Description:
CATH class of the largest domain: Alpha Beta
Number of strands: 16
Number of helices: 10
CATH architecture of the largest domain: 3-Layer(aba) Sandwich
Helix content: 10-25%
Distance between the termini: 66 Å
Shape: globular
Largest sheet: 6 strands, parallel
Structural class: alpha/beta
Number of domains: 3
Strand order of the largest sheet: 7-10-6-12-13-14
Amino acid sequence: MAFRRPSLPFLLAAFFFLVTFGEEPNTNASLFVLSCVYIVYMGEKQHEDPAVVTASHHRLLSAHLGSTEEAVRSMVYSYRHAFSGFAARLTMSQAKQLQESPEVVSVRRSRMHRVHTTRSWDFLGLTKSNPPSVLLKDANYGDGVIVGVVDTGNDVGRSSISGIWPESRSFLDEGYGPVPSKWKGTCQTGQAFGPSNCTRKIIGARWYVNGVDKTDLVGEYLSARDFNGHGTHTASTAAGNLVNGVSFGGRLGAGTARGGAPRARLAVYKACWGSGRCPEAAVLKAIDDAVHDGVDVLSLSLGGDGYPSATIRAVARGINVVFAGGNNGPAPQTIENELPWVITVAATTIDRSFATNITLGNKLKLVGQSIYIGSQTDLTGLVYGGRNSENHQCHQPACAVLLSLNCGFNLA
């Protein structure tokens, strides 16, 4: 009797049945084959000694995994400053078992978040010109304040504006006094980031690679040095020095670049990697370390729910926690990090616009808003024209503009 070859739909159905209902192998190898990173939250710390807190995490984990060795091997991060908890590689059944422990408040899989991406400080009234802003002057331009930036790191060798070598003027420490005595952090070295890269301006650096996907490490610096550029941007926006004569390509947007608190110190916590992907477990560890290190402000320009288990303890210790509200919208209910105890900064506008005429290929002249209204320049190709019709070709230099979304013209 001949047997017919099983059809493809039958094989697929059988595969999904086995995946859904198959029994989980009870082997050590399965720990990493079928495991994911879970965050185990245990609430308030029961001990002030960080080593004792971590030891309690190992004891709890070893009770479920069978040995201390397996517990240490599966541990990704131990949270021991802001709160008690840990991140570990676990199978689903192991996570469910931990959830039943009376010491555990919650267990959930670590989620993946993303980072959120000249005249703003003047618009806010924080001017450095004469006379200077009263608020900025009274705050001594941030002198003595430590700003912790949780992001993609910091490229100390890159200009914060034009991406050139050598050391960025935004982060030079000329004229700075000693590192504040309250600082308890460290300068974690690594690839292309040595002890000399921590200065009286960038006073500390840490990086968190555990639990990061290997694909996010391709071409990356295994250190606090910034590969993506987002962290350098946000750090210079918050606390970059005054840098005169900055422009794009020597022509566009000439002026002075500076951060909101140009005399503040910086502490870098690299928890986001590659194209700007931020494992939740790594971000929580960065916040936990920042609380221990003694930052005054925590800046996180990345997505998420505000990381409540960590940030509420940071705020309780007097740390101002600032999040980005996200790049979604303008539809309602698109804001992120909407916690009552953190400062969530939403996207907004500035107090100026540049009217510019453009001429289409059919000689139709339109008035739009531009980033540049000067004379002809060969610096083109920066504008995304995905919303423009392909039926109209633009040959004039003035075409390198951005049309207002509400200008009312139909280019189709």
